[in-house]
Each structure stands twice: as C-alpha cells, then as structure tokens.
Automatic annotation (TrEMBL):
Assigned keywords, A-Z: Repeat, Transferase
Organism: Gallibacterium anatis
Residue ranges constituting the PglD N-terminal domain according to the UniProt record: 4-76
Molecular function terms, GO-annotated: transferase activity
Record lineage: Bacteria, Pseudomonadati, Pseudomonadota, Gammaproteobacteria, Pasteurellales
Protein name per Swiss-Prot or TrEMBL: NeuD/PglB/VioB family sugar acetyltransferase
Transferase among keywords: yes
Keyword Magnesium (UniProt): no
Length: 209
C-alpha cells in the first residue's frame, strides 16, 4: 500500500514538487495551505486544511513542505517536528546523487540536479532544477539553492541562505548564514552572514532587511 503524502503549500513551487514525487512509493493526498479555501481543488487535488492542526490522525500521513521562502519553510518544519510528523525527501528520478553524499530530512532535489561525493545536505533544503553541488560541499539547514546554480568543490552554504539562479560559487568559499546571492552572480570571495551580494564578480549590495 502506497504511503499518503500531504504537501504544505500550494503555490508555484508545489508544481515542481508534485511532478517529482515518486508515484511508485507515494500517493499524493492533498494540500495544506492557509491562503486556499478548504474543499476547493488545486492542480486536481483537494485543499484539505488551512493548518496542520486541522488534520485528523496526523500520524497516518507523510508530509513535505512545498514552500520556497526559507523562513516560512522553517516555521512549518519546526511545527511538523513538534507534532512528530513523518517528513519525507522528494528527489526527482533524473537527479544524480552520489552514494557518498549524505542527505538530511525534508529535502527537495529537482530535475537533473547533481549532488557529488562527500557533500552533506542538511534538513529542509531545496536543491532546484539543474543545480550542481560539487564534491565536499556542505549546505546547511533550511537553505535554498536555486535553478542552474553551481557550487564548486568544498563550498559551505550556512543555514537559511538563498543562492539565486545560474550563480556560480568558486571552490572552498563560505556563504554566511541568511545571506542572499543574486541570480547570475559569480562569487569569488566569502559572503558575510545576512548580506546580499550580486554581480560579476559578486559585490556587497546591502544587509538583509
């Protein structure tokens, strides 16, 4: 019998998540979303509740947080954990994951993404479509690595960071906690925590507000 999965979040990111769900292991049951009307349908599936607490027999289901925003994703992850809910990983069948990589809980790895040997991916992390995470990297909890991004060898991305689409992080660099790397940036030096950088080469723009 397939395990029933509930997605938390019915926005655009949920489309990618749902498309990558392994239908041989899981049956998609419906959404929890506080911006949708309970009983309506979205992408052909029901809105089950506006919040986790409204789900009866929560332990019967598995859950995944289909929300791109790091802070919102963190809040839901903590709530699921507090309620002892089973949080799954969703890894697209086209992704390439080294046997030597270590994966946490609640991770999304999208189409054609690559996670190489010796890399550690923390909890509640997004590795989006075509992202390349080279050998020996560390992506800490609740971070978001966007589409077509390259992390070269031994890069550390600290917790709650966002690395924008098509950016390149040179090897052995550190992206500080809560930092934002703009799309298309080429990062050639460490990025300080809670700062925004962008450009080629990437330069400081402002503090995260």
């Amino acid at each position: 019998m397939l395990k029933k999965v509930i997605l938390i979040g019915a926005g655009g990111y949920a489309k990618s998540v749902l498309d990558s769900l392994d239908k041989t292991k899981y049956e998609f049951y419906g959404f929890i979303d506080n911006f949708q009307t309970v009983g309506n349908y979205h992408l052909g599936y029901p809105i089950l509740a506006n919040k986790l607490e409204d789900i009866d027999n929560k332990e019967k289901y598995s859950y995944f947080i289909s929300i791109g925003n790091n802070l919102n994703r963190l809040k839901h992850f903590l709530n699921l954990s507090k309620n002892n809910c089973n949080i799954i990983n969703i890894i697209d069948k086209s992704a390439i994951i080294s046997a030597g990589a270590k994966l946490g809980t609640g991770i999304f790895i999208g189409k054609l993404a690559i996670v190489n040997n010796g890399t550690i991916i923390g909890d509640n992390v997004i590795i989006n479509t075509k992202a390349l995470i080279e050998h020996g990297c560390l992506v800490e909890n609740h971070s978001n690595i966007s589409t077509n991004t390259t992390l070269n060898g031994d890069v550390i991305v600290e917790k709650m960071s966002f690395v924008g689409s098509s950016s390149v992080i040179n090897g052995q660099l550190r992206i500080g906690a809560g930092a934002v790397v703009g799309s298309g940036a080429v990062v050639i030096k460490n990025v300080q925590p809670y700062t925004v950088v962008a450009g080629v080469p990437a330069k400081y723009i402002k503090d995260v507000g």
